[in-house]
Design a protein that fits this description.
Blueprint: H1 2-97, H2 103-118, E1 124-129, H3 133-140, H4 143-146, E2 149-155, E3 161-166, E4 172-176, H5 177-197
Parallel strand pairs: 1-2
Antiparallel strand pairs: 1-3, 3-4
């Protein structure tokens, strides 16, 4: 009888072993799937994190490049402005010191240009700087210029050039060096800048 029980126990144990083996195999498969899923998710997170970090670095690099370009542009612009300002100061200095050009020719041209603007049949009064008075008086003796000039008046507020006014005072042409320099600044400075800095 004990062999009968032994057989039953043995059969039950065998069945239990087989069941246990199946449960363990299923558990191992489940564990394997869970581990693979965890690995996949970890790889995706690493990839996403890597992409996020790269994107952040690229954005930061782009920002720094844009900032460097802006700073560079501002520095270059500042230097260009300094160069143009220096050029204008040199021109002003030449005009003040009466160097680099013929003062008499310059004044003759300014007077004739002004007379044309007011009308050649009109007598005019000319205002000049005290230091240019002698030159303008010489020009007055010249028929081309002098026939229009009724009066020459020296003024302290004119550094160079002329102010031409009709005798009735209705028309006044300001052709001083300062006024001409302002015109040069507004009209020619962009052209000068282009010549100096492009090409």
């Amino acid at each position: 009888m004990s062999t009968g029980i032994d057989k039953v126990i043995s059969a039950v144990l065998e069945k239990a072993k087989k069941e246990a083996k199946k449960i363990i195999e299923r558990a191992e498969e489940e564990a394997k799937k869970i581990i693979e899923e965890a690995e996949r998710r970890r790889s995706e997170r690493i990839k996403e994190e890597k992409e996020r970090v790269i994107k952040e670095y690229r954005a930061e690099a782009s920002r720094k490049i844009a900032e460097a370009r802006r700073e560079s542009y501002l520095k270059i612009t500042s230097e260009k402005v300094k160069i143009l300002d220096e050029l204008m100061r040199e021109v002003e200095s030449c005009l003040r010191e009466r160097r680099g050009f013929n003062v008499e020719n310059s004044l003759r041209n300014l007077i004739l240009e002004s007379i044309k603007e007011v009308g050649e049949g009109t007598g005019v009064r000319i205002y000049v700087s005290k230091r240019d008075l002698e030159v303008v008086e010489r020009l007055r003796s010249n028929l081309e210029v002098g026939k229009f000039i009724a009066e020459v008046i020296p003024r302290d507020d004119i550094d160079g050039g002329v102010v031409v006014e009709t005798l009735d005072g209705k028309v006044k042409i300001v052709n001083t060096y300062d006024a001409r320099l302002k015109q040069v600044r507004s009209k020619l400075l962009p052209h000068i800048a282009k010549l100096l800095f492009q090409g």
